[in-house]
Amino acid sequence: MEIRLARESDLADLPRVELSAAEAFAGRDVPPRVFTDVTSPDEWRPYLATGTLWVAETGGRPEAFLGAHAEGGRLHIDEFAVARDHQGQGTGRRMLAVVADWARAHGFACLSLTTFRSLPFNGPFYAAAGFREWTPEAAPATIRQRLMYEANAGFKDRCAMRLEL
Predict the structure, then answer these.
(1) Would you kindly state where each structural domain of the chain is located, as residue ranges?
(2) What is the CATH code for 2-164?
(3) Which among 17, 42, 48, 99 is least surrounded, fewest beta carbons within 10 Å?
């Protein structure tokens, strides 16, 4: 599996990867739209322009992606999806390592994200990769706002995490 910056031609595959990744949430307490709603390819174009959208591909076809944006000295991960049949094979860990290396090389002090605190393939996965939970009191306003938005959208047991680089 090759991990690289995304190209325009990859955008059409991202909704498929996102829906496939969502299958891991089956039977969990998540809003039903997790299984139907996707980010449109147009919404990923700004990430292409800033060079903060990565894909992991097999045979020329994306099977995972990670989109992030800069917030000051922090690179915030907005979406990280691994197709269901590629989960549990180290793809996520390898992608995080590539993105962390890129962020370090570009002067970022940390990575951040919001995720489900207790689901094994979310909070515990990121903790094993070195992320630490970020209390809302210590987090910047943008993180607190994101957590509030997610709670209002029906996402339960969410937390913010950061990885010092």
Answers:
(1) 2-164
(2) 3.40.630.30
(3) 42
